[in-house]
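quick one, 187 residues, struct below
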Amino acid sequence: MSIKGFDKESPIRFVLIFLSLFVVFYYFNILYFGITSPGNHYIAFLDAHFNYIAGLRYLLLHSSAQILNWLGYIAITSNYELLVVGHGALRLVYSCLGLGVISFFSAFVLAYPKKLKVKLLFLATGILIIELLNVLRFVLLALFWNKQGGQIVDHHTIFNILIYIIIGISLYIWVKHDDKKRADAAN
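---
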């Protein structure tokens, strides 16, 4: 039995699931960052054994450094920084990891009424592309960004605008692909 307005294809159901998932994903990441960072509510065991945030930071830093090394630059990393000899250094803080963007993307894909297999494939591909674009951003910033200048808009804002445009276009195509298949099947 289905409650009117909450069947599988209901826009109200989609919005409620999307918002719920987004809030859970977004704030879980913030909470987890808090409990794996030394301070008030620090849990050393989680930090030492299950710190996916530090793992993601490590992967992003070392991937960026490897690309820069392949391009002929000397790139050095630490737990939080990427240094390119003769160019500059970047410090990867929590907001650089793309977890907010991934929370939005994941919530939308999982809330949308499609088969689970299709959702999981699109989700994995989308997250991989988001992080590859993030690595590209770090490579470009390491080579060309001058933090001494008086920028009106910082690179986080520019990246977020671009990534949300790319996500919006991708989600539109992904959603419309089913509409086109349904229309073709009806004809």
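The mean pLDDT is 89.
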